[in-house]
Amino acid sequence: MVEIFIDPGHGGSDAGAVSNGIQEKNITLQIAKKVQDILQDEYSDVSMPII
């Protein structure tokens, strides 16, 4: 089994950049989840926790 760790970078109390009511942590989490979905659809026997 291959493990791929996906780290969106910000979260919790660390919002990252904030502009116009948008927090970087929310955007990076959405991207990380999409990457996780794509990789899980394309590959078998892979573990991909978002950390």
Automatic annotation (TrEMBL):
Source species of the chain: Niallia nealsonii
Keywords, in A-Z order: Hydrolase
Protein name: MurNAc-LAA domain-containing protein
Pfam families: Amidase_3
InterPro entries in alphabetical order: MurNAc-LAA_cat, N-acetylmuramoyl_amidase_3
Record GO terms (molecular function): N-acetylmuramoyl-L-alanine amidase activity
Gene Ontology biological process: peptidoglycan catabolic process
Keyword Lyase: no
Source organism phylogeny: Bacteria, Bacillati, Bacillota, Bacilli, Bacillales
Residue span, MurNAc-LAA domain: 4-48
GO cellular component: outer membrane-bounded periplasmic space
